[in-house]
Amino acid sequence: MSRDAERFDVLIIGAGFAGMYMLHRLRLAGFSARVFEVGDDVGGTWYWNRYPGARCDVESVEYAYEFSPELVQEWDWTERYAAQPEILKYANHVADRFDLRRDIQFDCRIASAHYDAEEPHWTLTDTAGQQYHSQFCVFATGCLSVPIKPDVPGLESFAGEIFYTGEWPHQPVDFSGQRVGVIGTGSSGIQSIPLIAEQAQQLTVFQRSASYTVPARNEPLDPQLREAVKADYPAFRQRSRDSGYIFGARMPANAGFASCLSPSEQQMHLENYWRIGGLFFARAFGDMQLDTGANAIAQEFVRTKIRDLVHDPEVAERLCPDAIIGCKRLCADTGYYETYNRPNVSLVDINAAPIESITEKGLRTSDAEYPLDALVFATGFDAMTGALDRVDIRGASGQRLSDVWQYGPATLLGVQTAGFPNLFMITGPGSPSVLSNMLQSIEQNVEWITDLLKYMREHEHECVEAQADQQTVWMEYVAAMAETTLYTRCNSWYRGANIEGKPQVFSPCVGYNQYVEYCDEVAAAGYSGFDFG
Ligand code: N01
């Protein structure tokens, strides 16, 4: 142990919703813990993604912690879908209310985490060289926390300002009078484009793939509805779980399989869910994500909407995706398609004419040059494994996690990986994570991990490690579940396909309720599948 190292029971990396709750839960259980956070405050994804229009696509009354009845009662969401500033305010409120900051070290990036099997303990080293030791280590680093910064030739020569939606400045950005370019039309682009268009003199959107987006239908939250939800919050959240979708307790059940409906009934349900808005659209048919025929009907419905909403037929066609709807994550927008009716907005198809370079004055594609004062990259994230890959994590025999996962991540239940004793992940690959309501998955994972640590303390176990064969069985199950759906039929970030050369493994676990049941069974059986030492 180094001379000036500090020692804790548990070291946690990341002070987003996962890291904050992990700290709180561990404290309640009597463990000493320290959190490390790169940012200068709490909030994780909501700390970094401050771009105009950033908003959650899960309803605010559900995108909230459930563990504290007092917290539920004292917090009032103001909109159906909370915007980034309000979610960040909530994260800060939680940090204050539970006095979390005294155990969080801000402005601190952990560079390495090495396991010493002799001691045994984990040694974390930050970028300033300070070391910390602990029996356990928990990565609460999020699934979408490492923005992709495309290496476009000439980028450094650009005289204007460059922005990344995933690392937006803390001060307001004013695009008034500017010619702005946005690259990327996933959720971040789709949320920011309408607001940038309102400010900019000219907005040029560079689209590689058209995305499907459904109107979010955001609105102020009806105080009566808010109070009704609070009046019996546990039952409300139970309805979310019972829905099988993990969010949308207020929504009607799905309309059944498309094949059981007449064409006019199919259109009626699609219309109804388009009117309801947001990701709930995927519930218009119970088999939208399972059957290509059902999916094709929904695709055509959205393309018809795009053609209705966008006045210029050529622009409308460019905005029409032809992929499987929901295979890449569905987006929820406010006025996205309508934005293309504005005289100051143009859409460039960079599939037809690829970006060749960034110049001092703007952006050059294979058939034109676009003068720009500012350029916004809404180009997504190194999802699922990106944050773990960026730390030099080494296990019991000195092996690097990134080497062990060179053909794709493998975990048991998404919380542990074989060869890395006493190391945990919250909402790691192999757990439902991004296919669920993240807050609910975070609470479940945190509570399960804390119970495991308490079990170890009671049974005087020093080490826990996922069994390699059980991990294989689990990842085969995750893959098999994915294969029952249409999620594997496109190049999405869910499976790492948005990054050239990244192994393509669909790692979120389909089926939240079955996952939780399985976690509970494992715990009840004395954590079967895990070795203790
Ligand atoms: O990223 P994305 P995102 N040159 O990967 C394009 C969550 N989120 O940040 O599809 C040109 O979806 C890329 O094109 P293509 C949510 O889960 C949630 O928007 O690869 N273009 C695509 O159009 C979401 O799904 C909210 O052909 C390039 C876009 O950039 C996830 O985060 C809000 C390119 C990237 O889209 C990711 O969303 C925001 C290049 N080199 C985000 N590289 C909520 O509402 C990429 N693209 C909660």
Automatic annotation (TrEMBL):
| UniProt keywords, alphabetically | FAD, Flavoprotein, Monooxygenase, NADP, Oxidoreductase
Q: Which InterPro entries match?
A: FAD-binding_Monooxygenases, FAD/NAD-bd_sf
Domain of life (superkingdom): Bacteria
Q: Does the keyword Heme apply?
A: no
Cofactor(s) recorded in Swiss-Prot or TrEMBL: FAD
Q: Does the keyword NADP apply?
A: yes
Q: Check the record and name the Pfam families matching this protein.
A: Pyr_redox_3 (PF13738)
Q: Which SUPFAM superfamilies match?
A: FAD/NAD(P)-binding domain
Report the sequence similarity comment from the record.
Belongs to the FAD-binding monooxygenase family.
Under which name does UniProt file this protein? NAD(P)/FAD-dependent oxidoreductase
According to its UniProt entry, this protein's organism is: Candidatus Litorirhabdus singularis
